[in-house]
Amino acid sequence: MEQAETMDKMLWESKELNTFGYLSDALWNEEAGQRMPYLREGKVPNGALFDYSHDEKGSLDGRRLALARAELEIQPEVLLKDLLTLPDLQQFTPLQPDLEPLETEWKLAPLDFELVLDRDPFRNSSGGWREVDTSGFEMDAHSSGSLSRQPTGLNANFVRGSITQMPFTPSGMEDTVEDKLKFLNLTPKEIEEGREWVRQADKLPALPPDFVNTQNEDLKAVMTSKPVQVTEFSFEGTVNGIADILDEREMGLVKKLRGLSASSPSAKPVRRNIQADNLRLLEMSGYGDIYRELKPEQFFESGADGNNVLKISSQSDATSSKEWAVKVDVTVPAHDFKDRVPNMAHKYPFELDTFQKRAVLHLENHESVFVAAHTSAGKTVVAEYAIALSLRAKSRCVYTSPIKALSNQKYRDFKRTFEDVGLLTGDVQIEPSAHCLVMTTEILRSMLYRGSEIVRDLDWVVFDEVHYINDSERGVVWEEILIMLPSQVGIVMLSATVPNAVDFANWIGRIKQRKIFVISTPKRPVPLEHHLYVCVGSKMIDKDLIIVNTKGELQAVNHATAVAIQKDFEKKNNIRNMSNNARLPPKQDKTVWLAFMDYVQHKELMPVIAFVFSRNRCDELGDMVSSLDLTTQKEKHLINSFFWRAVSRLNESDRDLPQIKRLEYYLERGVGIHHSGILPILKEAVEMLFQEGVVKILFATETFAMGVNMPARTVVFDSINKHDGLEFRDLRPGEYIQMSGRAGRRGLDKTGNVIILCKMARIPDISKLQQMILGVPMKLESQFRLTYGMILQLLRIGTISITDMMKRSFSEYANISKAPQHQEALDKLTKSKSIQNPDEEIDCGICQQDIEAYFAAFQACKKIRAEVNSQVFSLDSKLLFPGRLVTRRCIDAPVRWGVIVGCPPRQPNEERMLDIMEFVSLDDPDNAVLTRVGAREIHNAVNAIIKADANAIRSLAEAASTNNKSAIKQYKELKEKTAAQVAAATKSRVDVLTPMKDFKMTDVDLVDQWDSLVAMEASLKSFGCIRCPQFYDHMKVFNEKMKHMEEIARLRHLLSNESLQFLPEYRERVGVLKEMRYVDQNNTVTLRGRVACEVSTSEYDLLVAECMFANVFTEREPAEIAALLSGLVFQGKPKDELIVSPLLQEGIELMRSIATMIGIKQREAGMKQATSQMADQLNFGLADVVYNWCGGMKFVDITKMTDVQEGIIVRAMTRLDEVCKNVKNAAKIFGNTRLVDKMEAASKSLKRDIAFVGSLYTCD
């Protein structure tokens, strides 16, 4: 009994009995029949837990009785017989089972698809119904790019997104992303099993085990069908047209599908069972993304006998040959506009122009448009209507601009029209949940990459100033956004007139798989009149001459008059060779401008925008004309009150800045200055006062012409030359058109006046003026480039590859648009006789021995000969003149003699050309041809000269080509005479002109090349095939075949990703990332890579990340960190020498050394940048300024430390704050809390006073 009580106690203490007194499941591990005898007999065997015997009073213990009842409830059919004999259980009543919980409730499973009606975008007609997967709602933002995924909720990442989130699937990439997601969802075990299957493919049985025992005879017959004969090639073939990726791994996949050994160069037909290839499709899970992207099942097609036949090349996507751009005819009035749009989403107080109506009609149908209209034509109406449509549909619209200032201005304008408007820039976030969001392009790009929930509800995106895509630094952002936009987003693009609008729209339509409607304006609403103002500061001489009238006609007579004035002035003042680009002395310059302003006032041409291409020059001109008083007392009162309301937002100390005082003085007299060196709040004040009409003349740089419609009556060019960062050059037509377009106020002016100042009578050449004023604007050109940030973001996403991005860039559009023609040519060549039956073409025992080796050796000689000749004959040597005999050599013909008959002038950066009369045979002069060839195509020049009448040969050849019988006869006689001279000159031995002896060249490499060439050409005589009597005939056939094969290789190269312009650079950059451990060998982004993704500072992602991992920042004070990071954002050129503390100098040197290390890694990976390029680009010119600003120094004192203008300093501070935020977020990723706190402190110390005062456009 004691043993039983002890065991019971242990059981309860160990909690093996649950609260109801039942044994836990873990103890019921013996057969019931083995336990029951002990219960009945009261014995405790070894290993038993309880003693079930009676106690002295003859009753069971209560707890043991509970155990017995538990066994009865669990297994009554086994226990009843034995237990009924127990005295205490004589009254046992079996429990009635409760079967209600077992009743089946039939509920239909939810569908994981929905039916969608397809529409043909080309015919605008309905197609068939198709199933669309809707199971993505079960996925979240971290694993799916589906629009039906679970929302993230209103958390901190709702607006900007997060690097842990997937972007929404871009339109045009749905299939690619879906296929790659299937692979990404495979478990590591499944992937390894698939790879093992591939490795053991040759040992697998012909049929899968499940198919071997099948009773389906039809299936057996299909699976065991007889082999068919298929011709295969070792060329790198194409799959799915231009969408191929044929790198080394992918080509291995293609060869595996074709059963082609990677080492076999043979192109002979083989016997194979194609059905086995179908089975091997199951192997491809190991190849993952490659398999699904290439869709290898399309390698097979049904043959004539019903068997599957391997496709030699697949057809390209039919849509690639479609025209996606539709040019809208705006010359036809939209008379039925009100009937088609009876209830406009936004009503205007004026009648819309035809182009605006056409745009509205397409927007109502949710069709994307590209509006390329003249400046001030009213493109903003289209943007406003897209916003109104979004507000009506309770969806979202994003308006993007290339610059922050333009975003602020548009925010104010749209806020006045639509109340529900927000603003997102680098440092400002106003009402981010609004249905209309105004933002910069960089913000939208970040939101797309980071899967912002805003994108889910996005209905329209408006791209203003699309021609900004030509910007070399930031143009790539536009391309990335256009590629990344999801399918539900409509696109509205606004641009100045561009010549290739249709091509650009075609590119967008192709990548987004939708039609783009191109709408252009035929003419300006206010015509322009272009003037030359010949100005020397004297009313007797100064003259205004129209150079191009309102009809666009060049007035050459007026230009001649201006030139006459120039000559007369130079003669009277004894001026010679005065350059048009030379700066005038300040006194003369002021005299000219004051005289011109007097003329402008007299002719009532104000307000005037004077475009000047230098910040300092703007300030100088402001000083020159500030002596004039151009405003009334009422206007002065308006200017002063508005200016002081704006300035009152600053600290008292900041109000005394010299720039503020100076600009106040200018504005009071009606003179404004606008450039990047002006404080942002002052620039906004100038813009608002100019719009009010109280600023009479505004000196502005080129950026003022960008964006907001601020027209004037007159536009003046201080000069038509500018420095573009590399050199001084004339304005391009697009630049001139953009700036001159600000002339002419719609509804106020009949014409807009554009005046080019010709100071001191310096008249530009008429051809330059014609090209600039009437020339074609610059085309939209791709500025796509790869950055480490882009590569890491896409590798992080996983479903969108870099090659997907590259293929869809505008830079690849020209090649991709020709894919159908390339595919057609490829199909034609692969079916040619020489390719289908390569061994049947030459039936010659002699030639078959080494004709292929001879061909290879001859081509090697030809390549070296071209390199040598390009150096030797490119010289303007006196040895190459008319009459010199030369030879040309083809592989399938004997050496041909020729004579030089002309040496055309050599064009810059082009190969030297020669006119040669070439004789196929000297015995038959009629076959002589006059041809122009490049110097590298010459085989040899010899030391033989004939007296050929070169001029007569060229003139008679030209006349004979017109079927002039007399000329034909004379030309024939001249050819016979020349052929006789050449034959006589070559009868005896002639020596070849050598680079060393005759051309006096001593370059060591060239001498080595020449010696090697002589030896290689001599070795050609040792080949046996040249002894064949029909060698040239056989070589002609073989050469034709090789040309076909080379063309096939070229076409396949063009149809593959190997032709992508940026593919080599991509591989090099990935090599750098792997070497620096930002991605692993499987291209998976590591922790270091995720940190670099968060930094997002353009080309400095790796530098900042490396500095963070090297603890360059962690041990420093916040002010020091901000000072070091300023080297990434400052772009000015301070004249003063940088003086900083030793600690700060140490940090600068450390950052430069890390940048140099990255440069070395890049060089080792094959990139061509100099190792010091990144280090040299770091600009720490504001390091001491930033350090003291973060230390609390006043801005007025800051400006005394440097010659950098105030506006440049503030702009650097604003960009620096964005970098500090990015570094803080990156530090959170790898848990560096100290750096997080310090970056937060650095950001707070930056954001104060005048550097971060709010925009006038965003305040009430």
UniProtKB/TrEMBL annotation:
Main subcellular location of this protein, as a coarse class: cytoplasm
Gene Ontology BP, a term: nuclear-transcribed mRNA catabolic process, 3'-5' exonucleolytic nonsense-mediated decay
Domain Helicase C-terminal as annotated: residue spans: 624-798
GO molecular function: ATP binding; hydrolase activity; RNA binding; RNA helicase activity
GO cellular component labels: Ski complex
Keywords in alphabetical order: ATP-binding, Cytoplasm, Helicase, Hydrolase, Nucleotide-binding, RNA-binding
Domain of life of the source: Eukaryota
UniProt catalytic activity: ATP + H2O = ADP + phosphate + H(+)
This protein's record includes keyword Hydrolase: yes
SUPFAM superfamilies per record: P-loop containing nucleoside triphosphate hydrolases
Ranges where the Helicase ATP-binding domain occurs: 360-516
InterPro entries: Beta-barrel_MTR4 (IPR025696), DEAD/DEAH_box_helicase_dom (IPR011545), Helicase_ATP-bd (IPR014001), Helicase_C-like (IPR001650), MTR4-like_stalk (IPR048392), P-loop_NTPase (IPR027417), RNA-DNA_Helicase (IPR050699), SKI2-like (IPR016438)
Pfam families in alphabetical order: DEAD, DSHCT, Helicase_C, MTR4-like_stalk, MTR4_beta-barrel, Ski2_N
Location(s) in or outside the cell: Cytoplasm
The keyword Hydrolase belongs to this UniProt entry's keyword annotation: yes
This protein's name: Helicase SKI2W
Annotated organism of origin: Ramazzottius varieornatus
Lineage: Eukaryota, Metazoa, Ecdysozoa, Tardigrada, Eutardigrada
Gene name of the encoded protein: RvY_00958-1
